[in-house]
Amino acid sequence: MKKYNVAVVGATGMVGQKMLEVLEELKFPVENLYPMASARSAGKKITFAGKEYEVEELTPEAFDKDIDVALFSAGGGTSEKFAPEAAKRGVIVIDNSSAWRMDPEVPLVVPEVNPEDLKWHKNIIANPNCSTIQAMVPLKPLNEKYGIARIVYSTYQAVSGAGVKGYKDLENGIQGAEPQKFPHPIAFNCLPHIDDFLPNGYTKEEMKMVNETHKILHDDSIAITATTVRVPVYNSHSESINCELRKPFEVEDIQKMWEETPGCIVQDNPAENIYPMAVTATGTNEVYVGRIRRDFSIENGLNFWCVADNIRKGAAANAVQIAFALIDQGLI
């Protein structure tokens, strides 16, 4: 198998480290690895596949090397500045920030859902928001078979989604320390506030779910609303998803459809207390669905519970899966 030269930008951060772990775990065919980070982290050592590497400073000139693909997880400002520098040098950028997601020239991809969008990339590909990614895996086949008229998202998002500082706020908050990242204590508390508030009363996170769902599913006709909540869980996001479908359905048929959906695992046996949970999703790359049941309050209404590891499937693993999809389609 051909091997590829891979850069990981933000290699010392939470998601960057996980990208390196997933590249190794999934045996991505790496020829040469180039870990990059800010000047502050340059010079640090990382280990990949049993070999030690020194992190180099992220500069435009760092991409003058022969690099096939660069996985970016260094924040929106960094991506806006450096992704075009890499792209114009012929590097395919897979970016985990929000910087490029809604750019009409940039594909927004979940490999199990819309891999065909990779064909029109112009050397920058966007990784969707973590909470959006996991919802897309079960919603895509649902929309294809039954049509979705409306979605109500209610999310319960782990502190790791806010980075190391968010993680520390929970860890230290349990001991009584004041929060440093969040506006209020997250320990023993829930915050209906992820990212900034917008003039329409929604948060940026909530509007990301609305806008990204439309773009990924190529269907602006779906009415969507969202409430996103930070909860005192270290890792893995949970979501209650309510859908109004356009066609009648049987719950058993939907369950069977999801059992056959790549990347989707059904855990739904209430009699045995089996349903998706954050503690069991953590450390895996799949999306888990359960509590699948009819919503009796509306015609063709469906409720289900959806859980995934936000640092893996919601970020690092999805990015690496995009890189594999590029290989599969002969685009790299």
TrEMBL record:
Pathway where this protein functions: Amino-acid biosynthesis; L-threonine biosynthesis; L-threonine from L-aspartate: step 2/5; Amino-acid biosynthesis; L-lysine biosynthesis via DAP pathway; (S)-tetrahydrodipicolinate from L-aspartate: step 2/4; Amino-acid biosynthesis; L-methionine biosynthesis via de novo pathway; L-homoserine from L-aspartate: step 2/3
Protein residues bound to substrate: 157, 230
Catalytic activity: L-aspartate 4-semialdehyde + phosphate + NADP(+) = 4-phospho-L-aspartate + NADPH + H(+)
Domain Semialdehyde dehydrogenase NAD-binding positions: 5-121
Keyword Thylakoid in annotation: no
Catalytic residues, chain numbering: 130, 237
GO annotation, biological process: 'de novo' L-methionine biosynthetic process; diaminopimelate biosynthetic process; isoleucine biosynthetic process; lysine biosynthetic process via diaminopimelate; threonine biosynthetic process
GO molecular function: aspartate-semialdehyde dehydrogenase activity; NAD binding; NADP binding; protein dimerization activity
EC number: 1.2.1.11
Keywords: Amino-acid biosynthesis, Diaminopimelate biosynthesis, Lysine biosynthesis, Methionine biosynthesis, NADP, Oxidoreductase, Threonine biosynthesis
InterPro entries: Asp_semialdehyde_DH, Asp_semialdehyde_DH_beta, NAD(P)-bd_dom_sf, Semialdehyde_DH_NAD-bd, Semialdhyde_DH_dimer_dom
UniProt-listed SMART domains: Semialdhyde_dh (SM00859)
Binding site for NADP(+): 12-15, 40-41, 160-161, 310
Pfam families: Semialdhyde_dh, Semialdhyde_dhC
Binding site for phosphate: 101
Enzyme superclass (EC): oxidoreductase
Subunit structure: Homodimer.
UniProt record similarity statement: Belongs to the aspartate-semialdehyde dehydrogenase family.
Name by which UniProt lists this protein: Aspartate-semialdehyde dehydrogenase
Organism field: Eubacterium aggregans
Source lineage: Bacteria, Bacillati, Bacillota, Clostridia, Eubacteriales
